[in-house]
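Known limitations

Files may contain more than one protein. Parsers should not assume a single record per file. Below, a two-record file is shown to illustrate correct handling: read the sequence, read the token line, then continue until end of file.
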Amino acid sequence: MGEFAFFWNNILNVLKTFGIGDLIDIIIIAVLLYKVLVFAANTRAGQLIKGISILFLVYIVAAALDLKSTSYLLEQVFSFGIIAVVVVFQPELRHALESMGKSKISNLSFLNFSGEKVDDDAVIKNCIAEVVEGVADLSKHDVGALIVFERETKLGEIISTGTIVNADTSKEIIGNIFFHNAPLHDGATIIRGGRVYAAGCFLPLSQNYDISNMLGTRHRAALGMSENSDAVTVVVSEETGVISMAINGNLYRDLTPSLLKKRLEELLVPEKTEPVVSKFFGKGGADEK
């Protein structure tokens, strides 16, 4: 009973000094812990946490049994563990931070450093119409294409891998870029501000290992771009001429030119830059995730 009374008195003493600041502190830690657990559950980090847990249990046993060499070795492992996690999971951590950057609070005017923006609906709609016409022509002739529409996430590092074009968007220039054996046809074309800004760019490939083997490098690159940014990527299959669109890590296939135009306008016209993707495509619309 004495130990229970001592324990209960300690709890009462803590509650007496408990203030609003302590409550806020607990809520912040709880939210952060929840986010970390969700992040771990949806990435390869989950397996890492399991491995760390096993090492920690081994450390406890080694300390209890006074195994000095094992304890010392594991202490050194834990000392450099944080650096190792950052290095190994750099893509996942970057994606998590970018997701925070896409949140509503990041859209406040004093936090917006994105540079040029196009507010003219007519310019964007004309760009979309020209791209769709060009894509439709490429699809008819089974000519592969990869076109990225830049949104809030700026793609400067992607653009730097290609050639600056900075031309008005037209179906003719889309056709010329992706024409067989053209110098820039193998890379991706970046649309910025309603203009064909760069071509021949290299995109990051998807880190999703569950992608169908039926999909080629273009589709994997489109998915990779959508996993690393909020960009909208249009793909034309060189084998089948099928038109697809990748956004938010999902690939939507077998789009007609008219449906592609409608979806691009819903996603890219300024008034509607934050639609719910499932609203457009419905459940089961994503062929690959």
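...continuing to the second record:
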Amino acid sequence: MKKLTIEKFVLIAIIFACVVAFFTKDLTITFNDNFLSSIKISNKISDDIIFDRIENLQNITWKFYYSPANSWNAFSQSLESAEDTVKIQTYEYTKKEIKQIMKWLLEKWVIINLIMENNKYQQYQNTWKQVQEYFLDYPRFQIKSDEQMWTMYTHSKIALIDSGFWIQTANLTHSSFFTNREHFFYSENTWVWNSLNKIFDKDWIWEQLEIDDLHPNLVVCNINCRETIEYLLKNAKDSILIQTQYIVDENILDILKEKSMELNDFRFIVSNTDSNNYLVEYFGPWVARKFSKYYNHTKMILVDNEILLLWSMNLSENSLDKNREIWILIIDDWIITEFKELFEKDRKISK
């Protein structure tokens, strides 16, 4: 017997109320247009569970890339190497070269499944529909959205290519590879791959994810997302380095304001937009700086020089509580060192 999830219970309750309203004619129900998309569905995960998961982190390592330097060749060559299956979950997908590679793979009988957001924030064109039409004549290509996943947006950015996987901050767009600052992580770790594959397959059939589906190094919004980041930030002992697009979530901001007074090294880099002026004004330029050489779309946090967070999410309420976002916790010393070196270079040319 299938378990009755919170989401299904809410949906059943809505349907029941509407049926009652129809037959009795004396019950009025009014919903906001975005009622379903604004429902916060996040299982409360205790600090003890978060602590246990962090204590069981594995040294998942392989290769670390960034744009606009070395990411495109690595990602495109990895995709071209596919022999059996490709599973991608992304917010946006417009890069024509990736479409061409996928057509070539489909002609080689590779199976490709894509989960993509079909109703993006302030979208001026439906690129989901464009992708659907582009691959219309290829039966081994299937595309789905998140309409029944009970998330506001599919904002995660992962790719499972045969036995390897990518977790990245970048969408599948030209700017992501050539004009943005983005970070990418590639590995063939079997345990993480199995967990990502389960996450993808459950999202594909719109089945509720559980905390036990997630490898200890994986964090998924809206399952254990907010609890994990708040725990890591609150328990930082020495340093927090952040390179991200923006920070607008009130809880995260409150934690950062408190930690800024406690830590030996507390610094961050954000995108060069007016919306980030508040951060520079509040924390001062010795802490907060805006990066202008490239568009800063990356989403990274390093805690105590020990745990590196690479993710798809922005530091906003929607990302933390309502979107599908996927991130990985990295403890590999070499990757952490490489991130820190690039962080310092970016910070020197930030204002």
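Parsers that stop after the first record will miss the second one. For reference, the second record is described as follows. The first helix runs from residue 6 to 24.
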